[in-house]
Amino acid sequence: MHIPVQAPAAYADGYRGRFDGGWARLRQARVERARALGLLPAGAAVDGFSPNARNWESLDAGERRIAARSMEVYAGMIEAADAAVGRLVQRLEARGELANTVFVITSDNGSEPSDPVHQPSMNFWMRTHGYAWRLEGLGGPGSLNFIGPEWAEAVAAPGRRYKFYASEGGIRAPLIISGPGVVPGRRIGGLTFVTDVAPTLAEFGGARATPEVPAMDGHSLRALLGGGTQPVRGPDEVLGLEVSGNSALFRGDYKIVRDMPPLGDGGWRLYNLAADPGETRDLSAAEPERLKAMLADYAAYEQRVGVVPLPAGYTIQKQLAANAIARQMPFLATVAGGILLLLGGLGYLAWRVLRRRGGRA
Fold it and tell me: What is the pTM of this model?
């Protein structure tokens, strides 16, 4: 669910009161649910919120109400999307095409923490573009709704952090695949990556790599989806990623991760995700040789894909704010130009009136 978070009231209203207890309660409930489903080992620790997260009780009643309503709309948006997928299934079935369709449902990253409403000059932009952020009508047409970092961290449970960061809460997302050739009702916990989706669909469609059309940078999941048990990646195969300086590399059960400021410190950490998926125990000091080897793997990944170093002092938050202002500049320049023309016209009229009065005198 991205910004603006919107949904028909009929969907959002079904979640009234569900989030009144705040984000800490939701995160804890999701951690417990993950344990119950076997997605989180029974003894695995889970971190709390990031240091800059607000305490739910520190909000006044009005702030809590609009924050809770934002999540009600978020949940309603997911249900509305699910209903739309259901309509598509019904249409394909009516056309006799359902048995020849593969469905892939996933997300591009962890939950979205951004708060566009409180960016510089956004109040002016919203007023002039027909948007608003208020409790009345929140999630409806013209509503610039969002859930913010605290709800995003709750939604990402049991992972750490959220979108933009390379911690598990920022990159781990569900992948649901259904259709012909896919064993139904099966849960697979192996590591896969977004680059695996295209070669999977290519194989379902009968495409094959040729000298003219080389293999893609990913692995087909078709054999695994069809009931196979062979892991997509071997224990020594590496998988790297980078977004705005936040980086990670996986090898077997291990992961190195670097989260940049303001939430991270730019240092590399080592985790065993099989035992510690919540990334709570840094093994860098205990296993320095493994860390060194995986850092070399990451350097090779950077070289292979062409990761560009970021300038000193760069943060995602600063860049997002700068991007928001830059996108508004053409509109603001037009408004400023119109105001200047109006003032110039009024000044000219005033000058003409004063000149006529002076002539008559």
Answer: 0.86
Report CA-CA distances (Å) from 81 to 14, 58, 68, 104, 157: 15, 33, 20, 14, 21
How much is the pLDDT for 360? 59
Q: Which residue has the tokens 């080389």?
A: 214
pLDDT at residue 352, rounded to an integer: 76
Q: Please give the domain boundaries of the chain with CATH numbers for all domains.
A: 1-95+111-158 (no CATH), 235-310 (3.30.1120.10)
Our separate counts of H helices and E strands in the chain read 10, 6
Q: What are phi and psi of 340, to 5 degrees?
A: -65, -40
Q: How far apart are CA 179 and CA 103, in angstroms?
A: 6
ω into 4 cis (within 30 of 0):
yes
pLDDT for residue 127: 86
Q: What angle do CA 59, 61, 62 make, to 5 degrees?
A: 95
Q: What is the pLDDT of residue 361?
A: 53
Residues of the chain with pLDDT under 50: none
The residue written with tokens 């699910």 in the block is 82
